[in-house]
């Protein structure tokens, strides 16, 4: 029995639609080659120490390249990558950890980055919804009372396809991929802002501690200059020192006061920078007598590979996602030329 022609036409049309839905006019994305070396170069002393002692001085230039590159220490071989170390584990100062925690909660720039993520996520969800049909279902009912007391009821139900674009050439899919790449780019931007915020708070905090040490040194210097001025004036009263010696002693005292005032100004600037980064006034009370000399700020970081520095940087990953979004935009623009 011969198959009806309409059924065969519908099958052919369905096959065409399925094949057309697999078409994407976006260019194939290829990650560029990383313009970095395979290993970090070792210092000359380390390279000389790693060379065999019995090797002749006129070794050929084709010697193994491992002697010219840094070899990771045994203690760092099992250490996690630097990008995987949390800031809570890196910094050991309790006051600094408290300030960083407050900054992550209250900093306005970080809040803006988080809001940008929410906006990009919502836009991506809208683009994904465009890939499925938008169906409306409506149900209405009426109940009427007749003159003789009877009740008449009527119900109407309707199902309609409000809007749906057959994505023959991948325009809607490419726009959805654009939104996804932009969302991922905003997430990397948030990580960039967070890393910069943590680094800024740490720099301002250690600058403040250095200012306190310099301020203490400036105070001791001023006290020493004032004592020297008293001795010089006593010598002048007894005829041992001249007026020039007294003037020089006065000049040294005034110079020490200028240095002390400058250090106090620098300390106030660093303290204001911390308040600005944290997002609210905070009382910064450092332990008396604490010094940065000999203090270990954080653990030793493994050198890793030069390529790790690029693949783990959020600003570079953000740029890559933006490049992907531009790639998908090309596909959407090409698909717009077709019906």
Please identify the structural class as seen in this structure: mainly alpha
**What is the number of strand segments?**
2
What's the mean pLDDT score?
Answer: 75
Task: Please count the helical segments.
Answer: 10
- Runs with pLDDT <50, length 5+? 52-75
Largest beta-sheet characterization: 2 strands, antiparallel
Shape: elongated
Strands of the largest sheet, in order across it? Answer: 1-2
From the alpha carbons, calculate the radius of gyration and give it in angstroms: 36 Å
Q: Characterize the quaternary organization of these chains.
A: single chain
- Secondary-structure element series: HHHHHHEEHHHH
- Approximately how much helix is present in the residues? 55-70%
Between the first and last Cα atoms, what is the distance in angstroms?
Answer: 38 Å
| β-strand amount | 5-15%
